[in-house]
Amino acid sequence: MFSYFKTATAGILTVISLSFAQDVTLTIDGTSLNYESTADISGFQFDHDGCAQGASGGDAAANGFTISTSATTVLAFSFSGSVIPAGSGTLIDLGGECSTLSDFVFAGEGGSSLDVYLLDDCPSGVYD
């Protein structure tokens, strides 16, 4: 009986810890895509609804990232291998107010995948 309790407790604690383990948390404030990260960011990509075709600046530009935009996608990385250090700030200025951001792909050290979460705190509640 005690063994079952230990196994169940370990399982529950694992699920809880994985549920809250986000490497990068994103928020939108006006046209700013803000971040809090526990890991260095070596590149990122996300889709948008046409609102971020003019995305630029922020800590991505300050750390030497090349920022490419299209009608539906933003891609940013460094040719020199620089990173956005773990911490917080404005990742990028979206260039417009966005109602839909999705399909986040963030890379960390050595191209490792980072877990990303966009906080849904916008008034309209439309962010994906």
What does this structure look like?
- Mean pLDDT is 84; it is low at 4-20 and 122-128.
- A hairpin with a 3-residue loop joins strand 4 and strand 5.
- It is built from two helices and nine strands.
- A five-stranded antiparallel sheet has the order 4-5-3-7-8, with no helix packed on it. A four-stranded mixed sheet has the order 6-2-1-9.
- The protein is α+β, with helices and mostly antiparallel strands and 128 residues long.
Defining traits:
four-stranded mixed beta sheet; disordered C terminus; globular; about 130 residues; about 35% strand; five-stranded antiparallel beta sheet; 9 strands
Describe the secondary-structure layout.
Blueprint: H1 2-19, E1 24-29, E2 32-37, E3 43-48, H2 58-62, E4 66-69, E5 73-77, E6 87-93, E7 101-107, E8 113-114, E9 116-118
Parallel strand pairs: 1-9
Antiparallel strand pairs: 1-2, 2-6, 3-5, 3-7, 4-5, 7-8
Number of strands: 9
- Overall body shape: globular
In angstroms, what separates the terminal alpha carbons?
44 Å
The portion of residues forming beta strands comes to 35-45%
Strand order of the largest sheet: 4-5-3-7-8
- Class per helix and strand makeup: alpha+beta
If helices are DSSP runs of H or I spanning 4 or more residues, what is the number of helices? 2
Task: Summarize this entry quickly.
This protein is 18% helix and 36% strand. By secondary structure, the protein is of the alpha+beta class.
